[in-house]
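User: Predict the structure for this protein chain, please.
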Amino acid sequence: MKNKTVAALMAVIALCAALTACGSDSGETSAKISGAPAETAVDTSAKVDELRANAKADAAEATADQIQEAVGFLQDNVYSYFSDSGAMVSTIYYGAFLEACYNGTGNDYEQVGLQAQKTVESVYRGEKRTSDSTTQENLKALRTMVEALPDAR
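Assistant: Here is the predicted structure, written as structure tokens:
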């Protein structure tokens, strides 16, 4: 268990470093996704809640570029949402971000955001496995929705 926790923490740190190196926002986005190092234990419901709160706060002042970043992440990672803890964190965050940006509209972006969270969060928390039938059904639906999603508008 300790090795899993260390590996998950290393994956989150690596994701944050990669996003900081590639982004033009000086790491602000990666800090928000990670929830700031060691604030909340990874792989917990509390961490999922923290990601959602950060996403909702960020959505209040979202730019078109940030929305496109969220859509782009979900499109670019359609076959790797579960590849590691960092990918799951990003999927939950970007899903919650899109849901919050389009809250109450019922449009495709809001629906993809909801589906992304639904698909990944129970695996992230260790409640389900990627091989579970429910997870696979949710993943299939998410992939179909994301592949049909136009660039953000």
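The CA atoms of residues 16 and 30 lie 5 Å apart.
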